[in-house]
């Protein structure tokens, strides 16, 4: 039975990854699943009339989302909130504002590098284009729509090794000159905004007068799939960190307990520092909390009984590069979720929160691993320390182990997402947290 549940879970995870090529599409995918589960949309500009036991969600910038089940005020104070946090963005190549290039008969688009992209794997992939387009309607209104070309429309060809004999030993990538993407062959330079208008019309948006601006990125059209001799691995784009968004979403939907405030917060811009109106270093989560518990004293008492689990993937030990890990802290794929620790507070885990997670995992029979970066290497960070500092809430950093983080195609264990989901679902239902 558990094998069937894991297989079904992975099938839904793959469908979510394929439907979510950008943060805008990821939030849209989550909204559809929340609506199907009975959650109601709220607008931050409206007054809210919240009913205990009802699920709600809000979005900001179309790329960040907070979803929750509203407890009674008494339960919120007595039991606190169980929060799961993740981020919707992934490193990618974004189209520039004036991107058109026409060289030697080839139509190209200039791009910016978003986040810490592993650039080499982007070459020679079948690329499509997706994101948000803002336009003026024929009635004079300004509105936005999600756009996805869906099929391969571009490629970034490698230079042949015959023309660069040092390619395998010393080639470095100049992001300005090497990355303009080839879209096709034309006699003249096309108007990119006009192409977007035509694509919107092809998708059934008929009232477009002119495209004013856009936020678009390229993505690999190869879909998520299970690979390996026994399908041990999950291969996909954007595992960091849409895998965590999906796991947290399913834990919220399936872990209902009306006595406890259950929250999923998935914010944008983590890969570039989280400092934005819809990022973890912005005010979105704190402003939400002020609205669901307006009285400051009760809100602070509730936070003291709350806990946030920041979910962001961890570096699994690569068999060809095991020297990049501390020998006692090399997480294995398919060996359970990873508690992430750092003495310098790059991760927010402490002995109480990590012990509590171990306790929860034992109760649902899911193994747990630990990750500490080599002492002579720099450590990345997550939304965990940022949110802990903003709210003063007890926080744990965890994630499933993966290979090729920030590549155009990443690899995780096919057992780990479902195992993490089981622990987070249990976390959503516990009445007390440590401290």
TrEMBL record:
Listed cofactors: Zn(2+)
Transmembrane segments: none
Pfam families for the chain: Peptidase_M18
Signal peptide stretch: none
First-level EC class: hydrolase
CDD domains in the record: M18_DAP (cd05658)
GO MF: aminopeptidase activity; metallopeptidase activity; zinc ion binding
Record keywords: Aminopeptidase, Hydrolase, Metal-binding, Metalloprotease, Protease, Zinc
A biological process from GO: proteolysis
Gene Ontology cellular component annotations, sorted alphabetically: cytoplasm
Matches recorded under Gene3D superfamilies: Aminopeptidase i, Domain 2 (2.30.250.10), Zn peptidases (3.40.630.10)
Its EC number(s): 3.4.11.-
Keyword check for Hydrolase: yes
Similarity annotation: Belongs to the peptidase M18 family.
Protein name: M18 family aminopeptidase
Native source organism of the sequence: Marinobacterium marinum
High-level lineage: Bacteria, Pseudomonadati, Pseudomonadota, Gammaproteobacteria, Oceanospirillales
